[in-house]
From TrEMBL:
This is MoaD/ThiS family protein. InterPro entries: Beta-grasp_dom_sf, Mopterin_synth/thiamin_S_b, ThiS/MoaD-like. Gene3D superfamilies: 3.10.20.30. It comes from the Bacteria.
Length: 84
């Protein structure tokens, strides 16, 4: 298991009630399962619209279960932003 940090932005930050928190997971899917357990409700709905960066690299359309997380890594949770 890798340990790192999840950072929330904009609507995700508001729904989580925090700017960041630790994760312990091997994949993005496992990390997000932990997020849903800790923050049921609005954040779970916001996550459906989010994109993700892993250590600065976009996840894109890859399956979250295939995205490995590194020790000391960072997951950025980015909801859609208004504007251009």
């Amino acid at each position: 298991m890798a340990a790192g940090t999840i950072r929330y932005w904009a609507a995700a930050k508001a729904a989580a009630g925090t700017a960041e928190e630790p994760y312990t997971a091997e994949t993005l899917a496992e990390a997000l399962d932990g997020v849903r357990e800790r923050h049921p409700g609005e954040l779970t709905r916001v996550l459906l619209r989010c994109s993700f960066l892993i250590d600065g690299n976009p996840v894109g359309t890859r399956g979250h279960e295939t995205v490995r997380l590194a020790e000391g890594g960072t997951v950025e949770v980015l909801p859609p932003f208004a504007g251009g």
